[in-house]
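anyone seen this seq b4? input:
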Amino acid sequence: MTFFLQMLVTGIVVGSVYALVALGFVLIYKSSDAINFAQGEFLLVGTYVCLTLVTAYNIPFIAALVLTLIFSAVLGLVVERIVLRPFIGEPVISLIMATIGLSSILAGLVHIIWGHETRVFPQIFSEESIKLGQVVVAPVYMWSLVIVVIMLIIFTMFFKYSKLGIAMRATADDQQAAMSMGISVKTIFAVAWAIAAIVSAVGGVLLGNINGVNSSLSLIGLKVLPVAILGGLDSIPGAIIGGLIIGVIESMTGGYLDPLVGGGMKEVMPFIILVLILMFKPYGLFGKKEIERV
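predicted toks r here
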C-alpha cells in the first residue's frame, strides 16, 4: 500500500506539470486551430535560460525564474510575429508545418549554445524529505505541485474574469464574431503564444530540478500531446484533468509493469492512451464535438 501511495503522489506531481505544459497546447489550438509542435522546444529553451542565469550568473532562483518568464513571453511574441503571423488565413496544415520547422530550429540553437551533456540545478529546495503518513515526498516534488497549482489557479482566474482573458475565450469560440466586437485577433494570437511559452518554461524548470536538464527534455512536449488530446484540445479544465490522469497512469506503469517487462512501458503508455482516445473519443473527455451540416 505504501508503494502504491508513493507512485500515486509521484504521478500527481508529474501530472500537474504535464497539465501546465498542456495548457500551452490548448491555448494555441483554441486561438488558431493548430497544434504547436514546438512546445517542447519552448520548454527546453526556457529551462536552459533559467539554468544559465542560476549557475553562470549566480542569480537567485526566484529572480532567475522571473527573468526566464519574461524572456519566454518575449520569445513567444517574437515567434508569433515573425514566424507564424504570415500564416494567418492560410490552411492550418501550413501553420502546423511551420511549428515543426520552428521546433527543429530551436532544438538546433540549443545544441549549439548549450551542448548535449546533462546539467543539474544547484540545490534549491531542502534535502529533508517530507513525510505524509507512510509516504515520503521530496521537497522538490512538493514545491513543484504547489507552484503548478498556484499557476493553474492564476490562469483560471485570468481567463474567467480579466478583460483580456474573456477576449481570448471569445476569439476561441468565434473569430469572426470577436472581430466584429472590436477584438484584435492578432493580439489574442500573440498573447496565446506568449502564455504558451511561459507555461512551458515553468514546466521545464520544475522537471529540470527533478531529473536534470538535457536536450531530451524537449520530448516532454511530445509526451504532453496525449494529455491535451485526452482532456480535449479546446478544454482548459480538460488539460488539467488529462495531465493528472496521464501522470498517475505513467507512474503506476513505471512502478508495476516496467519491472515485469524489462522497462519501456512507462514511456510508451501515454501514446497507447493517445491511440485509444483517438479511436473511441477523438474529441477527448471534455472537448467540444464539432458537427458539420451540409
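The chain has eleven helices and two strands. Residues 148 and 154 are 10 Å apart (CA to CA). kinda curious what u guys think
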